[in-house]
Amino acid sequence: MPKTISAADLRATVEKILVANKSSPAEAATVAANLVLANLSGHDSHGVGMVPRYVDAVLEGGLTPNTSAKVVLDTGSLLTIDGGHGFGQVIGEQAMALGMERAKQHGSCIMTVKSAHHLGRIGHFSEMAVAQGLVSIHFVNVIARPIVAPWGGGDGRFGTNPCCIGIPLKDQPPFVLDFATSRVAQGKMRVAHMEGRRVPEGYLIDENGSPTTDPGVVVVEQSNGLFGALMTFGEHKGYGMAVACELLGGALSGGATWRGETDGRAAVLNSMLTILIDPQKLGTRESFEHEAAAFIEWVKQSPRPQGSADDVMIAGDPERAARIARERDGIVVDDNSWAAIVEAGAKVGCVVGN
Predict the structure, then answer these.
(1) Ordered structural domains, the chain, with CATH
(2) Which pTM was predicted?
(3) pLDDT band per the 50, 70, 90 thresholds, residue 135
(4) What is the DSSP string of 57-77?
(5) SS3 state of residue 140
(6) Beta bridge partners of 135
(7) Of 28, 90, 148, 315, which sits 20 to 30 A from 65 (CA to CA)?
(8) How far is CA 170 from CA 205, 211, 314, 323, in A?
(9) CA distances from 87 to 37, 63, 92, 287 (A)
(10) What is residue 158's DSSP assignment?
(11) pLDDT at 354
């Protein structure tokens, strides 16, 4: 039976494992809070199911605990930051704090972060920015096993390469658009595989390049030693966006782009280009607030289609609704994912209750 666990208990469990795996209590708390927030937001793909991979990455040397963001270049409104293979949740928050300070000072900030370990849910960083009244735009690439096929291709050549845009809205929740350029996040395929589910057609190709609904083809090595691949969203359009994220998030940041063979290691490295804008300094805040609010109201007034019981939502609404429900009802963790978390704890001498 799947386990239903409160957010507080889940955070405490993750913190305990991370501290046993050499993180400071403060670092463990930051990472655990970020992972559980992803679960609360309905994005289990970026939640506590990542803990086993993080533990393995530390044990293999691909993830370095207690590493801070290192500023490589600082011109005021331009920041270049090296993540040093540290926890991306920590590096990302430190980088955003610097970038937001500069955006408020100068009106904008263009910031790159290279070689952080898994940054997690990029929407978290946009939520930090919009809470300060800032617009944020993020392009991210992924250095791990290539799991997304190019449009017209038959195997994985790059990662899920997310893009995120956060826009503050006066007197109402912000617009936070956070999406993988693959048809679906890799972590969602991991969750589906753990739960024994098939997925809709059009998400995947198998190790031979043929369509499949088995998420296991991108989770476990197949009989011929190969993996399948995810498809990009929107056919050639998502493919183009994925390449843009690779070039901007990976190459422009000073980080790496993917090419060559995978080494099978657990580490997941992200590099990111972030653009932060202060509407107040831009001189358009008053008109921006009025026009943005009027447009969102206009969009939400669209009538429900026949047979639908749902109102029109904007990006960020589903996550906010999920947080209310999961804070109230608890977070469901499937048996296989929980067993993997327990096993990860055992690897570092941390006993996690079954």
Answers:
(1) 1-66+332-354 (1.10.1530.10), 67-182+234-301 (3.30.1370.60), 195-231 (no CATH)
(2) 0.93
(3) very high
(4) HHHHTSS-TT---EEEEE-SS
(5) strand
(6) 277
(7) 148
(8) 43, 45, 14, 21
(9) 16, 7, 8, 39
(10) B
(11) 66
